[in-house]
Design goal:
This protein has 413 residues and is of the alpha/beta class. It has two domains: 142 residues, Alpha-Beta Complex (Aspartate Aminotransferase, domain 1), CATH 3.90.1150.10; 254 residues, Aspartate Aminotransferase, domain 2 (3-Layer(aba) Sandwich). Helix content is 39%, strand content 17%. The chain has 13 helices and 17 strands. The strands form five sheets. The chain has a seven-stranded mixed beta sheet with strand order 4-10-9-8-7-5-6, sandwiched between helices. A four-stranded antiparallel beta sheet has the order 13-14-17-16, with helices on one face. It has a two-stranded antiparallel sheet with strand order 1-2. Helix 3 packs parallel to helix 4 and helix 10 runs parallel beside helix 13. The model has no long low-confidence stretch (mean pLDDT 96). It binds ligand C6P. Ligand C6P binds next to helix 3.
Amino acid sequence: MIQPRLVTKADIFKLRQDFPILNQDVNGFQFVYFDNAATSQTPLQVISAIDEYYLTINSNVHRGVHYLSNKATEAFESAREKVRSFLNAASTKEIIFTRGVTESINLVAYSFGMDKLKAGDEILITCMEHHSNIVPWQFVCERTGARLIVADINDDGSLNIDSFRNSLSERTKLVSFVHISNTLGTVNPVKELTALAHSVGAKVLIDGAQSSPHVAIDVRDIDVDFYTVSAHKMYGPTGIGALYGKEELLNSMQPFHGGGEMISSVSFEKTFYNELPYKFEAGTPNIAGAIGFGAAIDYITRIGYDVIASAENELLEYASKKLSEIGDVDIIGTAHDKASVISFNIQGVHQYDAGTILDQMGIAVRTGFHCTEPLFKRLSLDGSIRASFAFYNSKEEVDRLVQAIEKVKKMLK
Ligand code: C6P
C-alpha cells in the first residue's frame, strides 16, 4: 500500500539520513556521489525490506503449499502490483520481471524481433541510444535481414524530430528510443514519437532506464507497446527490473527462456506454456530483488515526483551555471527539456585523468562513453565526464565539484 506523502521540498535534505553510504570519507574527503545515472544509492527502507524477506519468509514462489512459500509468493506478487501501478499498466499480466532494461530489450528482440521481422523490414532507433538499445536490434537485423535505421540529433542534443519522422515508412516495424538520455540528459517527447511510429503501423519500445528516477511514467497515456525499467536506477537493488508489454502483444509472442515456471504442462512430445506474465519468467526469479523493487517504488511514491523533480532541477540549473562559469569547460547536451545529468569536457584534459583526480578528492563521476559510443562518434568526441544528480545531492556538493575542476585545470593544463 502506498504511504501518504511525508516529504515536502523544504525537508528533502533530511532524506539523506536514509542513505548511510553517502555519509563516509573517501580518500580523506567527505564523499560526493555524482554517479546516480549509473546506479542510484539504496535507502534503508529498501535494504530492510530485503533483509526482512531473508529473515522471515525466504522461500521459492508459486511452488510450495507451505506457509513460507505462500508468504513469499504474496510479497512477490504484491511487488508486481506496485510496478503495475507505478507504470499505470492495465493488468499485472503486462508486467514481466527481468534483470533490468538490458534483459527486457533482449527479451523483445528475441521474442518479438527475431520472430516477426523479415528481410526488408526496418527498425528505427536514435543516435543517442545506449548500447543496450542498439546491439539487440543488430542481432535481429543479422538474423532476419531487417535494416537498422538511426534518427539524428540536433546540435543541442535534442532529437531531430524531422530526421525521426522522415526515417519512418511502411517498412518500419519496430521503433525503439530512450525516454531520457543517460549521456545528454535529453528528455524525449515520448508520446509524440510513439504516435508518429504508430502512424506507420510500427510497434514501439521505450528505454526507461533513466526516466524512472526522475519523471512519472504512464504507459497507457503514452500508448507505448513496450516500456522497460531497472530498479537500481531508482533507489532499488541491482539485478531486477521490469518489462511492460501490452497484453495482446505479449500473448502473441514466443517465450524467451525455457524452463520451470513458464510452462503449464511438459511432455517429451509437446510443452504448453504458462499464462502471462509467467510465460516470460522461466526459473526461480529474483524474489528478494522484486520485493526491494517494490519498496523502492513505495519510497519514490512517498516523496513524490514533483518534489524530486523540483530538487533535481534546481541542482541541474545551479550546476550548469557554475560549470559554464569555470571557463575551458564544454557542456555536452543543452536540450531545453533536460534531466539532472551533465556531461562535460575540460579543454585539453583527458576525461580519465580528470575522473581520477576527482576521485582522489572524494568525488565519484563517470568518465568515457557511458555505453553510448556511437553517440560520441556522432559528436566527434572521445568521451566525457558525467555528473548525474539525485534529489539527495546538494549545492554544496556541486561547489566541491567546481573547486575540484579548478584544481584539475591547474594540475593538468
Ligand atoms: N546506464 C550508465 O552509467 P541496465 O544496466 O540493464 O540496468 O540498464 C542499461 C541501460 C539502458 N539504457 C540506458 C539509457 C541506460 O542508461 C542504461 C544503463 C548506466 O549510464 C550503466 S552503463
